[in-house]
Structure formats: C-alpha cells, structure tokens
Amino acid sequence: MKNYVLDQLERPMKDLRISVIDQCNFRCTYCMPAEVFGEDYRFMHGDELLSFDEIVRLVEIFAQFGVEKIRLTGGEPLMRKNLDELIYRLNQIDGIKDIAVTTNAVFLVRQAKKLKAAGLTRVNISLDAIEDEVFQITNGRGVKTKPVLKGIEAAREAGLEIKINMVVKKGMNESQILPMARYFKETGDTLRFIEFMDVGNHNGWNMDEVVSKKEIIEEINEEMSLEPLDANYYGEVASRYRYADSDSEIGVISSVTDAFCSSCTRVRLSADGKLFTCLFASSGYDIREMVRSGQSDESITSQLIKIWTGRDDQYSVERAQKKPLKQKKIEMSYIGG
Ligand code: SAM
Ligand code: SF4
Ligand code: SF4
Fold first, then answer.
1. How far is the CA of 332 from the centre of ligand 1 (A)?
2. In the chain, what are the domains?
3. Taking a C-beta distance cutoff of 8 angstroms, is the pair 158, 110 a contact?
4. 10, 11, 68, 217: most buried, per Cβ within 10 A?
5. Substitution site in 32, 135, 137, 192 for ligand 2 pocket (most atoms within 8 Å of beta carbon)
6. Distance (Å, rounded) from C-alpha 197 to C-alpha 293?
7. 277-317 pLDDT, tens per residue?
8. pLDDT tens-digit readout, 205-226
C-alpha cells in the first residue's frame, strides 16, 4: 500500500527513542550527578507520564513515517511498571520490526525472561567499568559490578541480543578501556565505547575530558589488533571494528569528535510526551497536549510532518566548529540518550 506520509519525507524517521520514566536507581556522575538529583529532586509522576495507550497510539502514527525500531529508555526504563505489557503491545504494531531497551541491567535478573516473552529483541546495557572500585564511583550509588553482570547473564539466558555501552570520561574511567575490552572480547558481547557528551546542564562537560574515538582505538589496537568493519545500515552511529584473532567486535560512538548529524534519522519522545529532533535541543514539541486535546490522527500526523521536514539540527557539527552553543539543554535522564 502506498505510504503518503513517507512520500513527503526527504529523510525517513527510522529510530524512535521513547523515554518511559525519568527516575533512576543510579546517579551516574556524567548523567544524574547526586548533588543535583538529590532527595528533593522532583521527578515526573502519575498523569504527567504518557500512558501506555497514548504511547501505542503515537507509535502507530510514527510507523507511517518509516519508524521500524523502537528503543525504550529513561531514566531507568525497567523502573516503569509493567514494561513488558507495553513491549507486547508495541510489538503488535504494523511496521515495527525491532524493540530494544537501554538499561543499567540491575532489574534484568527479575525481568529478562518476561521482557523477551513480550517481544523484546535487544538490550543495550550500560557498564562503565569492570573493576568495582571504579564502577562504584561512576554509578554514584556505590553499586558493585556483580548485579550488572548478573543482569547480563539473565539477558543471555533469556535469549536477548546484548550490547554493552561504556561512556568514557577522562579522569573517571579511561583506565577501564583495556580491562573492559579484554573482558568482553572473551564473553563475545559487543562493547561500544561512547565519547562523553555535553548533554544536559549539570555534568560539567569539558572537551578536555573527552577521550576521542582515535585514542580509544589506538589504545586497544596496540594490545589487540583491530580491523574496521562496514556499517550494518545507513545512519548507524557506531564505527565498528573486529578483533583480528576472534569474532568479537567493538564499536565507538564518536558524537563529539566525528559528528554524524546529516545522517541522523532519530527522533526522541520524553516520558511526558515532548518530541525532540535532537539530543541537544533546548525545548521539545508538546505531543501529549496534541493527544490529550482530542486531536485526530490526521491532525497529529500533519503537524509531525511539518516538524520533521523542518528540522535543521546539527548540534554536533556546530560544536565541532566551535559555534556559540545554545543556552539550556535537556537532561540525558529526561530524554534517554
Ligand atoms: N538508565 C539506562 C542506562 O543507563 O542504560 C538508560 C538511560 S541512559 C540516559 C542512556 C544512555 O545514555 C546510557 O548508555 C548512558 O551511558 C548514556 N549517557 C548518559 N549521559 C551521557 C553523557 N554525558 N555522555 C554520553 N553518554 C551518556
Ligand atoms: Fe541512570 Fe542511565 Fe543516567 Fe546512569 S546513565 S544515571 S543508569 S539514566
Ligand atoms: Fe542527531 Fe542532534 Fe546528535 Fe546531530 S547532534 S546526530 S542532529 S541528535
């Protein structure tokens, strides 16, 4: 059947990221520093969050824009009650081929099996160090690696595809690049290094704290020979490499030193229903209001077409050109990465 929405788009929307909650059990220093996200921080609750019915309706609309992949994130998405129910419903939507979750893995021990049964295909698990002493500092809550490693095991046993994400920040965990690479080369899980980004307003980002893709690759390659691999698909954000002597692979997401804005096919929906066409935007479009004011699917669709075709985001390119940056940005825990 002809898709009239897709015909109007120069760039398809491929990858929809939905934050389902802004709360988290961790306080990673580069994302939700404990001194800002403390006891009296006001998280969203009740009606502020999009309901599952609202999310499902919006995903049905987004599927017409070419969205095939859904990533559920947060905050910590596994803290949203009955997440498996949402996954099950999203999986029934025509055109949706792949549902993934980004998580710190702690609650996977209890949830992996039922999430898989509901239709989850993949998990991206955040782990920034393999040594307890470093990890306890990065996660801001003194949590050791064991609960995360158990979560990874539970995901494996449930048959979920696994990728491990490690944010690298100078002075925080660059000592862990090689130990993490060695560990996951053995397990065969793909490890992806993420350059520390200037998302949000509270992580005190400074270019000097970014460990670049080039530095990461050089360090690993010195000990374990790497060969570059082709991208799996258009717009893939990680540069891929394979170890010369094994099938394990690594990736580097170089959004700071090597911007990829022109091929960005992502769109993000916050837990309270704001739509963002860029991770570094300072404000979003209030889709929850469109839904709750009783607008028809057609009306919402035509507004979304305007938003998507009108987008000119290229924050990472501008940052690289040292152009003055916008003032206030949204928080990573709010938009979910
Ligand atoms: N709580 C889940 C987790 O940590 O996987 C999902 C939400 S978290 C905000 C999503 C991703 O953003 C994680 O992989 C995290 O490491 C990454 N992230 C958070 N702050 C970042 C920063 N300043 N620079 C780069 N990546 C960041
Ligand atoms: Fe929580 Fe994920 Fe942010 Fe860490 S990166 S504080 S686990 S939302
Ligand atoms: Fe996409 Fe914005 Fe990141 Fe550029 S900076 S790749 S437009 S999210």
1. 7
2. 2-335 (3.20.20.70)
3. no
4. 217
5. 32
6. 36
7. 888 888 899 999 999 999 999 999 999 999 998 888 777 87
8. 888 999 999 999 999 999 999 9
Q: What CA–CA distance (Å, rounded) separates 243 from 220?
A: 10
Q: CB-based burial of residue 323 (10 Å sphere; 0-12 exposed, 13-18 middle, 19+ buried)?
A: exposed
* Beta-bridge mates of residue 69: 15, 98
DSSP secondary structure, 131-181, as one string = SHHHHHHHTSS---SHHHHHHHHHHHHHT-EEEEEEEEBTTTTGGGHHHHH
Q: Which atom of ligand 2 is nearest to the CA of 27?
A: 6
Quote the CA–CA distance of 82 and 115 in Å, as a whole number.
Answer: 10
Instruction: Indicate the burial class of 1 (C-beta count within 10 angstroms; 0-12, 13-18, 19 or more).
Output: exposed
Share of the chain above pLDDT 90, in %: 74
Give the atom of ligand 1 at the shortest distance from the alpha carbon of 332: 9
Q: Determine the average pLDDT of the residues in 243-259.
A: 90
Quick check: CB of 253 below 6 Å from ligand 3? no
Q: Give the C-alpha separation, 33 to 117, whole Å.
A: 34
Which of the two residues, 89 and 279, has the higher pLDDT score? 89
251 forms beta bridges with: 192, 240
| Tokens read off for 80 | 């949203």
Residue pair 194/168 in contact (Cβ under 8 Å)? The answer is yes
Q: Which ligand 2 atom lies nearest to the CA of residue 75?
A: 8
Please report, to the nearest 10 degrees, the dihedral formed by the alpha carbons of residues 186, 192, 198, 200 taken in order: -90
Q: Among the bound ligands, name the one nearest to the CA of residue 127.
A: 1
Indicate whether residue 335 lines ligand 1 (CB < 6 A). no
CA-nearest residue, atom 2 of ligand 3: 278
pLDDT attached to residue 325: 61
| CB of residue 264 inside a 6 A radius of ligand 3 | yes
pTM of the model: 0.94
